[in-house]
Amino acid sequence: MNKLMNGVVLGMVMVMSITVMGFAQQKKVTLTVWSQDSSEAPYMRQEAEIFNQQHPNLKLTLKDLVIPGGDQPTKFLSVLATGDLKLLPDMICPQHFAFARFVRAGIEDKFVNLRPYLEKDGLSNFPSYEMWMYDDAIYGVNVSLCAVVYYYNKELMDRVGINPQNFMLWDDFIEAGKKLKNATGAYMTPLDTASWNQYLILALQNDGGIFNKADNVILDKPETIEALELYKRLLDEGVAWPTSQFYGVGTKQAYREEKVAGCIMAGWYSGAILSSIAEIKGKWRITLLPRFKLGGRRTSKRGGSAYLMAKNSPNAEVALEFWKHLQLNPKAQARRFAFFGKFPGYKPAFKEPVVKQYEDEFLGYQKTAEVYLDAFEELPRFYHHPYIAEAFDILNIDVISQVVTNKLTPEEALRLAAEKLRKIIGR
């Protein structure tokens, strides 16, 4: 399996040239694809070649152009400013938070509603389609699962008789954390105290969040408040290691030194962060999260990207067929897994041997597909909104910062935040 590339360069443009055979005259079609990840190009070239083999009248080649990271939404808006929608690329692959900026600019006349194709395949095969919804239209589905698990240092926990697979509730997690701390001085997880990063994971797991399907603010929903109370409790009980540099070198060093013995984070975290720490290779495992209550869900979601298809493209039909090849094809999804190491966001792909039988060397050859397939069935909904960026800022400044510094209780902070956000969006 190819390892996930380090030093990701964001905002790549890929140009796919497709020569269509079988016409009286040769017809050439060029599909342009904006992607968030420079490592996407080799995978797309591979799939273009396979697509070509399956369609004898087509010949696909790729030309890759890179634009600076973070520029994709800005570039999108600059194209809209010209008034010529034909200047949009045929396919765009934004990260989920950028989708809100597209929606805010008006999305209905710009991208293809993929709902008919997803419903024909079965919506239950796509656990995160709601992240790409607006007014009941679905404009994309996550290319990877992005389910949240609990990573843990099995060797360290075995020494003190702790098995995270036996945790039923978050209370069990906290009690085990106290035991671990007393015996070794280690924490159960880092906890991001500078952003909404891990708090939102807990809120979604508990069926809370920021917005619901009807675009109503739910920051002051009891389940959202309960999640923030748990977040604060993890800090106050001394089982979570507070850090304002969650993705920084300090966190990696804490794992290396066994100062921190686990982490609550999404499946991509292993390839993006943990696998770069040679000293912990083979020592760590994954399991599902503890529940808030008996019968509650054991996972959450964090992150995501999807392909959106330009509605006004003269090549929309070809682009749609290639999208189907990438997203509605278990074998293509399995090849994506083999390429990136990220579990598919398409349920039928879990039956493919390369996925089902995969043993993760970094995680002690654990068969991780079993864990992620269970997570697949329990993923919560995360509804986006045109003002999600403002909501994230409010969470960082008016909620996390205020609660971590004991200036407000979780309930006080979230009630004030909900009121502020409602005023911004006008409802």
The level of helicity is: 25-40%
Low-pLDDT windows of residues = 1-14, 16-26
CA-atom Rg in angstroms: 22 Å
Distance between the termini: 49 Å
**CATH fold call of the largest domain:** D-Maltodextrin-Binding Protein, domain 2
Inertia-based shape = globular
CATH class of the largest domain: Alpha Beta
Number of β-strand runs: 12
The CATH architecture of the largest domain comes to 3-Layer(aba) Sandwich
Overall pLDDT confidence: 89
Overall number of structural domains: 2
Q: Provide the succession of SSEs.
A: EEHEHEHHEEEHHEHHEHEHEEHHHHHH
What's the CATH H-level superfamily name of the largest domain?
Periplasmic binding protein-like II
Identify the strand order in the major beta sheet.
Answer: 3-1-2-4-12
**What is the number of helical segments per DSSP (H or I, 4+ residues)?**
16
Strand content: 5-15%
Give the helix/strand class: alpha+beta
Q: How many strands, what sense, and barrel or not for the largest sheet?
A: 5 strands, mixed
Please explain how this structure is put together.
The strands form four sheets. A five-stranded mixed beta sheet has the order 3-1-2-4-12, with helices on one face. Strands 10-7-11 form a three-stranded antiparallel beta sheet. With 427 residues, the chain is α+β, with helices and mostly antiparallel strands. It has two domains: 12-145 and 303-373, D-Maltodextrin-Binding Protein, domain 2; 148-299 and 386-425, D-Maltodextrin-Binding Protein, domain 2, CATH 3.40.190. The protein starts with 11 loop residues before the first strand and ends with a helix. Strand 1 (12-20) and strand 2 (27-35) form a beta hairpin. It contains 16 helices and twelve strands. The radius of gyration is 22 Å and the shape is globular. It has helices spanning 40-54, 72-82, 96-104, 115-121, 154-159, 170-184, 197-205, 222-236, 249-256, 268-272, 316-327, 330-340, 353-356, 369-376, 388-404, 410-425; strands spanning 12-20, 27-35, 58-66, 91-93, 133-134, 137-138, 148-153, 189-192, 240-243, 262-266, 284-287, 308-309.
